[in-house]
Amino acid sequence: xxxxxxxxxxxxxxxxxxxxxxxxxxxxxxxxxxxxxxxxxxxxxxxxxxxxxxxxxxxxxxxxxxxxxxxxxxxxxxxxxxxxxxxxxxxxxxxxxxxxxxxxxxxxxxxxxxxxxxxxxxxxxxxxxxxxxxxxxxxxxxxxxxxxxxxxxxxxxxxxxxxxxxxxxxxxxxxxxxxxxxxxxxxxxxxxxxxxxxxxxxxxxxxxxxxxxxxxxxxxxxxxxxxxxxxxxxxxxxxxxxxxxxxxxxxxxxxxxxxxxxxxxxxxxxxxxxxxx
Length: 277
Known about the structure:
With 277 residues, the chain is an alpha/beta fold. Helices cover 45% and strands 18% of the residues. It contains nine helices and ten strands. The strands form three sheets. Strands 8-7-6-9-10 form a five-stranded parallel sheet. Helix 2 packs across helix 4. It is flat and about 90 Å long. The N and C termini lie far apart (96 Å).
């Protein structure tokens, strides 16, 4: 028995000589070590769970977009099917100049929307030369059109138009004392942030919430906009979206201060982008 006790003491001393001090835990710090170890394991598990939840959220977002894209496609396929069951229109009125004539006197352009909008049939006015349509878009009520844009921007987005918007802005010869508005700003360009960082007092107006993003300087309410008056209003790739361009440009001008000006850039002085509704 004595020999066994001596061997135990010797073994303990050898262990203390061979092992570093941090490997020895007294009863007082044993609980702390266990707690730290448990917290480390919990933190590792939390990171794994967070990564998995992020992966699931990303997959759900992709699934939601695919589902919404399918709904958009199905909607316009149904509209096109209904139109095919009806007799062709006999006469057409130009939405810009009100020229009214037989449908066969208008030159037609037919294509297919790359954004799930189905068949696109447009007409060219013999009087003012404007190309307009498709009629199925012009027939939408304001609320229906707004809903279509909202759905569209939940799935698709515009390209970065910062450079073109900046050109439109500086074409107004702005002053740092003025107040300016980017009409139809969207959230895909850096224009407002860049201009404000340079000391320009610039806001954006974007009526479609899915396109507005989280920019605090983008206004989405027309009622809020009515409280303001601007020295200048500018836009890029906006005019081709207006259903009633004359009336809507007149409305824009009502938000200008006396002597205010507008600057609008559009690529549609040529027939471009025919594959979008």
